[in-house]
Amino acid sequence: MPRFTPRVARAVPALPALGLVLLFLSTTARAQLKGAELLSGSRPSRAAMSTPSPATHPSPAPIQIKVGTFLGWERSLRISNGEVEALVIPAIGRVMHFGFAGEASPFWDDPTLRGRAADSSSAEWINFGGDKSWPAPQAGWPKVTPRSWPPPVAFDSLPVEATVRRDTLVLTSAVDPHYGIRCERVLRLEPGQPRMTIQTTYEKVEGPDLEVGIWIITQLTDPVLVAIPIPANTRFPTGYNSQSEDLLPLGLSLDRGMLSLRRDPVHATKIGTDADRLLWVGERQMLLIESPRVPGGRYPDQESSAEVYTNPDPKTYVELEMLGPLRALSVGSRISQTNTYTLLRRATPDPVADARRVLQLPR
C-alpha cells in the first residue's frame, strides 16, 4: 500500500464522545489537530470494550484513527479496524484509499498530483482520483454555476473539515457558492469486517430552490472485469443506456442477469443502469459497491442509479458511480444516500465465475 506516516501510535483509554475538528492553517488549528492525534492513538470501540468472547470467537480489533502524512498530504487520516483501512485527505476532500490492511488499494490516484493543493480557481479539472461526491445531474451545472466543467467548487476543489466522532470520520464541505449546499460525508468501518459505509448528506443552506440528486464517484484502477447485476424488471431492453453515443466499453455483454465489461484503452465510454450494485474485479481482490435504489424515485441520466465510466490511456482507471433520486431542495432541507463498500478475495482464476458468486447469480 502507499506510504502512511502516523504522527502517534500509542494506545489511549476509552474517552467520552468528542467532536474534534481538524483545521489546516492557524495555531489554534494545530492545537486541535494534536488533540485528534491523542484521540486517534488506539481508542477501543464500544464493541471492543464489551465482555470478551470465548477464545474460539475473538473480539474484533478496535477501530483506530490516526493522523499523519499520506501521499505527500499532511494532516491526513487513517481509520482501520484491523481487517481493512481507509485513508482520507481533507486537503482535497477525498477518500483516497480503501484496502485490506497493509495491502494495495483498488482506489486509483494520479501519482503526479500527490501532495498538491486543491485549486478552486483552476480552469482545468485537477483529477486527484479517489472517492467523492458531486451534485447530479451534470447537465444542470451550467444552469447553476458559471461553467459546465470542472465540477462545482465546494464539491470538488476546496478542502473539507474532518471531525472525529467516536469511531467515525465526518467530512464537511464549505457551502457551495452557487448551489448553496453543504456536503457532509460520514465514514465508518464495520468492526471485524472488510466493509466501509459512507453516508453522504446534502443540506440546502442558502439560495433559491433547486432540484438535485446525490452522485458518488469512485475512481478505481484498471480492472480485469466490471460486473453489474441487472434487475429482472429493468427499464432498459439491453440492460443499460449508452451515455457515450456509439462508443461502448470493451466486451460489453449481458448474460443471465449480469452485465460485464472492460476498460477501453483508446476511447472514453460510459453506460448507465438501474442497478443497485457495481462490482470491480481485480487480479486478486474485488470491491463491491452497493446503494439501494429508491422505489418510485426519479433518477438523472435516463433514470440511471448505477453508472460505469472507463477512461482511455494513459490514465488507466474506471469510475463506479452510484446516484440517488432527484429531489427538490429548499433552504433547511436535506437529502442523504449511503454507499457500502465491501472488499473480497478472488476465489478462482475465472473472473466471471467469481463475479457471479459474489452477486449471487446463477452460474
Description:
This protein has six helices and 23 strands. An eleven-stranded antiparallel sheet has the order 2-8-9-10-11-23-19-18-13-16-15. With 363 residues, the protein is mostly beta strands. It folds into two domains: 1-48 and 60-207, no CATH class; 209-363, no CATH class.
> What is the straight-line distance between the termini?
33 Å
Inertia-based shape: globular
Supply the number of structural domains.
2
Average pLDDT rating:
88
Strand content: 35-45%
Largest β sheet strand count, sense and barrel closure: 11 strands, antiparallel
User: Given the structure, what is the number of helices?
Assistant: 6
Strand order across the largest sheet: 2-8-9-10-11-23-19-18-13-16-15
Low-confidence stretches: 1-55
Helix proportion range: 10-25%
**Global structural class:** mainly beta
Order of helices and strands: EEHHEEEEEHHEEEEEEEEEEEEHEEEEH
User: What is the CA-atom radius of gyration, in angstroms?
Assistant: 20 Å
Q: Based on DSSP secondary structure assignment, what is the total number of beta strands?
A: 23
